[in-house]
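Deliverable D4.2, example record:
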Amino acid sequence: MKKFTAIALLSITLVACKKDTKTVTKVDPETGKTITVEVPVTSTDSLKVETPQAEIFAIKDSLGVYKQTFKLEKGETYPLVTYQKDVQTMTAPDGKSQSGTSEMTDEMSFTVNDFKDGVYDITINLTGKRNSQSANGKTAAVDTKQAEPKDEQLKMMWKVNKALVGNKLNLKMTETGKVISITGFDTIYNKIAASVGTVIKDQKDKAGFINSFKQSFNEKMLKDQFSKNLVLIPAKGAKIGDKWSESENATPDGKIKLTTTYTLKSVGDGIAQISVAGGIPKKTDKQTKEGVTRSMSSELSQNGTIILDQKTGWVKNQNISVKTTQTETLSDGKQSQTMKSVSNSTVVVNPKK
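Output generated by the structure prediction step:
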């Protein structure tokens, strides 16, 4: 028993010596050669242990609850390209169908100028815009990256789009994605007015067109767009599997609502994945006048996925499919006719290359 105790004590002594020394290289003053020696470890040496710095994420969890912020780098530019494709099919009472396709691409990017006191100073660059419509084997397109179309009916749209792109807006946004202000619209409005001046000669008509354009392109419109496309996770945060919903008016009177339900599916490997579902439940309406009954029904469904960059909080990709179905039937009690319209849309943000 004593022998084993002695060995154990010796082992403890050796381990202690190993912990209290470190290997260093120094120059021998007598020979001038570099030698390796063991020296005691001081108390300050023990404080110099380096630990790897944890990566800072914009989307991070606290006790399993994930919140979205933005960690954007000064001088960097972040894309926001929106592509939408609509394929509409009309079916007549005789069963014959006709289809048409429309496509739209809006290109913009965000350059971070500064970040101070929790607020980002960002330049919004309007870089490109394209619209096209296809039917009966023919396609008409208006593209700001292409020459002015020869078709007189398309020239107006091209002039407006061409005057729109190449401009810049200034965005002030908090780290949590709240838009404080977007400025610079007046310059764009003036350019639009000048561009349509050669087409719209009447000053009253010109003023009416500019006012209409302002209604569709203004600070509120862009704020709403950014809120939908950029800030996805609720301010209170969400756990994996949590669902939350947002509702908006689908008709001007607000009687029909579009509901979108989001689910936080996963966070990890540099991304946060959110699924999208919902729509407008089937609505029906029936009215009879002069012996003819008119029945109408409509519904909308949507589903898709949004992927956020976990490090920056910026949207990497969004792909949502929307299907709208409308049916109208006229009946006099003896015979009836039905027309049906089905629209299949795809909305993509930052399409994958």
